[in-house]
Amino acid sequence: MSGITSVPEPTGHRRREVLRLLRSSPGPMSIVAIAEQLGVHPNTVRFHLDSLVADGRVEQVEHGRKGPGRPPLMFAAVRQMDRGGTRHYKLLAQILTEALAADRDPRGKAMAAGRAWGRSLEPAPKPSAKPTGAEEAIDHLVGVLDELGFAPERRTSDGQQLVGLRHCPFLELAETRGAVVCPIHLGLMQGALETMAAPVSVDRLDAFVEPDLCLAHLKPVGAGR
User: FRET label pair with 56: which of 65, 135, 145, 196, CA 20 to 30 Å apart?
Assistant: First the structure.
């Protein structure tokens, strides 16, 4: 033995080659035709096609040939953007935050956007004979915030109801653009409570009262500050 071992070609590279070939082909291709074009074994092509079909990037199509014998399986690329590519949602969030920060009323616009977000998160609870109580409404709010990753916790201080937030899903943006991000979160909480016609609302949100804590202050609807 020479002691030399072959290094397998990366799976992702070969799969991209199969997809690229199908995209550039004027019509559907068979497994054998793809293998010949790429200089690989048909079983290799079949393996990658199975994955590409499962991912929704390639589809099996009917063979147009008529006559005796079993026609070969034919494949074509699905005409759409590659859903397996890189995403840059953080960059998009930065762009939109910067644009909102440049508005004449960034806080008002941010709160309105957050409130609309909060109202759309889930359907309002079905109306019942018994009005929604403050405790039920706060529990609902905590549940919504927990689903979104805020790590909420109920608190009280001098008889006032509070919700502590131990995690910010938009931490980096909140640290640099808190004047936009924090009002969005405040509006979100207000909107979530409005869907219940709750007797309480979020009066204000104090950001980073501790390095790992923001505090949402609740008050009865209609009460003054």
Answer: 65
